[in-house]
Amino acid sequence: MKSFLLLKSILRNLLFISILFFGFSVISCSNQENNLDQFLSKMETRYEQIAFELGDAYWNFYSAEAEADLKAPKEKFYNLLVNDTLNNLIEEWYPKRSEIKDTILRERVNKWHRVLLSAKVEYDAEIMKLRNELEEKFEVSEKEDKSNYNFENNILKLIELRNKKSVELGFDNYVHLSMETNGLGYEWFLEFVEMVDKSSLEAYKSLVEKTKEESKLYEFGQMDAYQLFSQFYKNYEPTEVKIKDNIELVKTSLNNIGIDYDELPAKLVEMKLPPGIGGQGLMINIPNDFRAVMTLGMDISVWMHEMGHGLHGLYNNINSPILEGYEWVPGNANGSFAEGMAETLAWFTRNIEWQKKYTNLSEEKIIERKNTVKEYVPAYIRFHLYRFMTETMLYLQPDKKFNEIQKELAKKYLLIDTENFRTQVLSNIIYISYPLYTQNYLLADMIASQIHKTLEEKFGKEYAFNKDVGEYLIHNFYSNGEYFNWNQRLIKGTGKPLDIETYFDYYNIK
Ligand SMILES: [Zn+2]
Q1: Please, which residues have CB less than 5 A from ligand 1, an ion?
Q2: DSSP code of residue 509
Q3: Distance from the CA of 342 to the center of ligand 1, in angstroms?
Q4: What CATH number is given for 1-510 in this structure?
Q5: How far is the CA of 102 from the centre of ligand 1 (A)?
């Protein structure tokens, strides 16, 4: 592994030199800027050290390799992120960041601003206490009976606290703050939702009408909607895969695009995990340590998804911890792009040529399944809308009951016209640990589709077997970390910002 690290550091320096000529400007800076640079570097070294510790603790949490201590590193993060000198310095520099000549330093200030802002909410003493309590209650345990714990009320309390804190910080509510720190922007997000809703509505209506006609239904109910959704999923992921060893197939698929897994500081482990835990990929040290553990029987696309997170981190060459994009503080990495990178790798398993080689499906069958996916994709898209908008509404309309929100949005997005709708309970870990994150999965599908279209245009139909494809992904999407914003990265690699229209065209949605 050592020779690899040496090679990496040489590459890193070479890249850094090439960066100087392409787009970054490091011009001699003022004394003030130098002081800022030095102070932030000190903070970032500490930040990264704590990120390693927390990553390692989460690894133990998922893999059960050792006792997991999540609290101590979180406490350290808390102490670092409430540091007055750091907060004052960023508050002073953020408004005048355009004056900073060194553009990497400028972006570090921007990223610190987002990290500190979101930490003011998530690492607020009261919020952190409640969040830790809820996470602990969610942990699988035989020692403690949790049946009396009121998840629903406590999650609502957490939502209320996040909103309250956001108002104190000058935002209308937590959605506004979160969209500012995650890089999407509140206005952009609303427009995105509206556009996706509008563009998919007619196609979804036709599906609903067809179902009603075929099944002679007067009303379209919840189960009917789930049926449409499951038609999509049954045909989306590859089946009859020839290579049973998932890790072997990940390595082979990487090798096909010119990436040698054995050269990477990555560790994939398949083992039986406690019920309810599917697994997790963790970027413990960017770019030197990626690990993923998964329970038995997961789909190859899930493995590729996690490995996609791995490649994104392992080929990160930016030399500043805050621009490397650790996931432990919301706002540090752009979640949509991170999930997009994961899905970009997963999409190789949905590629026709890949499926021809690694599944027992005939070409005819593969195409038939693709067409079914296209037919039912409006249901998939609108389920995403339904899912993330129910969470968003919890923050936007805090006086409304969760049941009411679900019923209203089921009508709006899933066109369910029965009153008989079984709502979900609020107790879901995602609302606690990954607030307002799920829109990223729909965005990720769009990002992956856009990138795969470019790959096909550049490298031809057989691009899943072209050794230059890996380098293309590394150069355009992984190497600069969080330096460019997510849309700039898409422009760099595909020539366009997020292209929703082409996504709808790809799926033949008119
Ligand atoms: Zn992911």
Answers
A1: 339, 342
A2: -
A3: 6
A4: 1.10.1370.30
A5: 32
